Amino acid sequence: MPLSSSSTSSTKSIRRAASELERSDSITSQRFMGRRQSLIEDARKEREAAAAAAEAAEATEQIVFEEEDGKALLNIFFTLRGSKTTALSRTLKVFETFESKIHHLETRPCRKLKDNLEGLEYFVRCEVHLSDVSTLISSVKRNAEDVKTTKEIKFHWFPKKIADLDRCHHLVTKFDPDLDQDHPGFTDPVYRQRRKMIGDIAFGYKHGQTITRVEYTEEEINTWREVYSTLRDLYSTHACSEYLEAFRLLERHCGYSPDNIPQLEDVSCFLRERTGFLLRPVAGLLSARDFLASLAFRVFQCTQYIRHASSPMHSPEPDCVHELLGHVPMLADRTFAQFSQVFTQGFHSTSRAGKLQYIFYFTLYWFTVEYGLCKQNGEVRAYGAGLLSSYGELVHSLSDEPEVREFDPETAAVQPYQDQDYQPVYFVSESFSDAKEKFRAYVAGIKRPFSVKYDPYTSSVEVLDNPLKIQGGLEGLKDELKVLTDAIGVLS
Ligand SMILES: [Fe+2]
Which Gene3D superfamilies does the record match to this protein (predicted)? Predict the structure, then answer.
């Protein structure tokens, strides 16, 4: 059954991004609410706002590394002259007054003081509430000389260990059937109760646990069957070869069939063996930040409930149809899995001031993972989950109607997108490897204070912010190269 609109669950990624912005307090984010505005124009305004913010920060010296709980880490230098201890005790009293937690304190003889006065230079690294930073610095200035703070850029907290994903479950309620009057299930209390019940599985889930199975009702299976059967007929002529291969395996090993909605636990085990990806249940539309943060660990946050029976070909929010038919088969391909993870490269080091850059990541995600096309054997095929889970847009994307451009991250990142109708523009990649390398080159061109590296042995993300850490990574790389060199020697 063709769709009259492409506003399917596959629109969720950009909604995630937009919802993030809506929660933000910046002027830029409010402007971005009108999604069809020129991104380039917004970029100009963003730069102006960032410059003004930087100027203000310079003036007040509120330069901190913000933590999730509203605390800030502050590095502060100051000088106390003379040998009397009163200045020291008064200064330390300031830290006590603001209930700051001192992480590090060291001193050295001061060589800058005039008139041969003795004194000490102090360095204090402390944790203080974000709202107290400015006042604390002012108070220290009243007691000490030459007060300086180091320049640090504000970054959001992000998960470093895979278990940290238990904290990455912030939902966006905009498309919740309890709140959104346009949701097909808004007037159906039975559906809403069912959705809540399945959602509770996700709320109670912790990393490492087995995902609780859902016994789907006959009505839910009928909905699945209608979408599954309709799309399956189209895949052989429209889906890329990697998708077709994975779909065949999923039907053979994971219970993919018109009469059965696959269980997330089974699919997760299948993906782990194929590409190392894991699924974890999520109760609804996840915030964009949490969603991308999960991909860095090769974890895909996956809804478990299904769309309303009255609207089998349309859902305003993500559901298991979109995840299982759109995303999962592609995550079973090694190259695409690598691309999905690389996609988060650079994301972590996007500072709070770089909100528009953050949006560019999601726009690129939109035009690749959700709506990407690729070339195969002289034909154009679909690999985007938004296409492969939407009959209407899948047909539209490979028709003569839309404009199809070569994938170029610089262009795609600022291309206005459409979330209420079919995309007027798609981007076609030569291959996933080609798209991955182009994306890497794009990220490499973005000025960032640090990079991150995923360690598969510890399932953790390491911040590469000093040469020693990079050297450690190179040691591991050398070991892997030796293994491969040995393998070549054995074969030759
Ligand atoms: Fe999606």
Answer: 3.30.70.260, Aromatic amino acid hydroxylase
